[in-house]
Amino acid sequence: MTAPIAVIVGTLGAQGSSVLSALLENQPHYKIRALTSNATSPDAIRLANSNPKVEVLQTDLSSPNSLLEAFTGASIIFANTVFRPDVFLSQGAAAAEELEASHGLNIVHAASKVASTLQHFIWSTLPDAEGITAGKYKIPHFQSKIPAERYLLDPANGLVDKTTFLRVGMYGSNLVRDPYKPSFVEEQVKYIMTLPCSPSARIPFVGSETPNIGLIVDAIIRQPGKTMGKYVLGVSEHLTAGGWAAALSAASNVDVAFLETSLEDYERRWGPIGTEIGLMFKLIEELGQGSFTAGVHASLIVTPEDLGVQGLLHSSEDRLREFRWEEILG
Known about the structure:
Elements: E1 5-9, H1 14-26, E2 31-36, H2 42-48, E3 54-58, H3 64-71, E4 74-79, H4 85-91, H5 93-112, E5 120-125, H6 129-132, H7 140-143, H8 146-153, E6 163-168, E7 170-171, E8 183-185, E9 190-195, E10 202-207, H9 209-222, H10 224-227, E11 231-234, E12 237-240, H11 241-252, E13 256-260, H12 263-270, H13 272-287, E14 301-302, H14 316-320, H15 325-329
Parallel strand pairs: 1-2, 1-4, 2-3, 4-5, 5-6, 6-11, 7-10, 9-13, 11-14
Antiparallel strand pairs: 8-9, 10-12
Helix pairs in contact: 1-9, 3-5, 4-5, 5-8, 12-13
Domain NmrA-like: 5-289
Protein name: NmrA-like domain-containing protein
InterPro entries: NAD(P)-bd_dom_sf (IPR036291), NmrA-like (IPR008030), NmrA-like_oxidored (IPR051164)
């Protein structure tokens, strides 16, 4: 009997690698088709040699034919696209949004052509901030996910009843890089984490992205009756902005405090990335704890608790403990 095929788009990224690990451990009956943009990279070669059940396949997300070939015969597809930082920095947010949106549409178009074998399509997405707020907040790295989501929701395209929409919360590990990383302030003799939101703003976190995303996706696949046609909240916890700083203090044994700043000051400090990230935090603060379920009817929302995996998920503090903070902070 031929093994069913599970395809992972972006296997070497944070989300894809987490899904790969979970499927190999928990669903060994699947053959994994691991898609990457460069099958000759050291990581891709290492993966190809690591397990006979994993086939590494180089795929061009800008090529519909390349994706159709990769999806042919698939039973399960997990798809996650990337808001490319190189394009963002060199060409601007609009160009990065357009590129990611085109990749997403190519993916879902190709998936619709393998509907005869496809049993479950999982689309990693984010809230439609612009639609939810009637244009008040346009966050390009959120909006770049939405054209594919709209295609999937259209019954005419034949995928809505086979699709689970996974809204993944923020990574606890984002604090290792700018513009999130704390800075040392000599006058206060401590590290300060600065964001354009109040200390009490409740932020949705996936927690430790590895293994949490994979654990949630594994549960999605195991429970199609609960998850097809639904939105799964990829969130293990809601931390306040101040609580995120406290989690870093606990994980690093370094005194870290949170300081609220204005969006304007944040933009002046960080430029275009400050606008991108700053608007995201303003949206989260305004919508409150429901920011990542906004715009979706309550009957369509599934939580990790509903899937029985909440107790297995690792916190953001767990993830932060994995880093060498004396090197990161200097």
